[in-house]
Amino acid sequence: MNLEKLVRPNIWRLTPYSSARHDFEGTGGIHLDANENPYETGLNRYPDPHHGLVREKIAAIKGVPPEFIALGNGSDEIIDLLIRIFCQPGIDQIMTLDPTYGMYRVAADICDVQTVAVSLDTEYQPVPEAIAKATTPHTKLLFLCHPNNPTANALDQNLVHRIVEAFPGIVVIDEAYIDFCPDKTFVPWIKRYPNLVIMQTFSKAWGLAGIRLGMAFSSPEIIKLIYKVKPPYNISTYTQEQALQSIRNKNQKDWWVQKILDQRQWLTVELEKLPMVERVYPSDTNFILVRVDDAKKWYDHLRQEGIIIRNRSNVHLCDGCLRITVGTALENDALIQALKNA
Is-above-0.90 flag for pTM? Predict the structure, then answer.
């Protein structure tokens, strides 16, 4: 892979902003370099723009060196940065496999970058031949959501292998839900494929959606490009401290994941008993895709009962489908009772 040819020329030439904390990376001494308030509040100093300690702790639990890791203000920032790094506005394209997470297209639209949508098959798996046929010299990024949102299934590893081997640009695998099927992660592949970027998040299994912290795993060359383009201080001290606290308490996350998986199984069994349910799709995530006889009717009914789910009927290949997040035992029971008593 010739990375220089894939990157936008102006980004390759860019001299990044150098903050006071870039010039001096230590922690000791008297800091009179960043025009901060010198009086201690716990937050009077700018946050670490390198996210060194958080990356070190993530590296320990993910089994990759820190230089293969970047942090973003949510995975959405990483999506935006990758499009801005690799795609020339009005010229280049991204590719998505529909149905999928809608933010890829929105981020591309904001950057004036075209989205080419290739359909998954009827079992929500990618079709390598269709991807190859739709790829042009201007197709710079391919986004794969694994496990996929809104369909909840993991992608077939052999198919992904064929895609990564053949795609001439950057393949981005969004693993937002991978903590619910950790044995299916593609993170170990980043050392083998320099054109691969894996995204993960603290928003789902870690219970930290409110701090907005996403992770990117890739070659050090791509990680350097991400840090070259991203704002220097947009991951706050508070966010970094909360992430570190969660990592230190990883057993809590693991307990939550097991409870969610247990409840997902219970909810699947109960949903399959209901007469309005036509199919409960297999799930590798913390949500379930359910095909029902009248999606709007049941969505409206649950909303009137104070239970909010997502109606995905307007999404490609998801006609008649509802997406239901796995809640607590009490919440899941309330959902089933509301459907039974309609």
Answer: yes
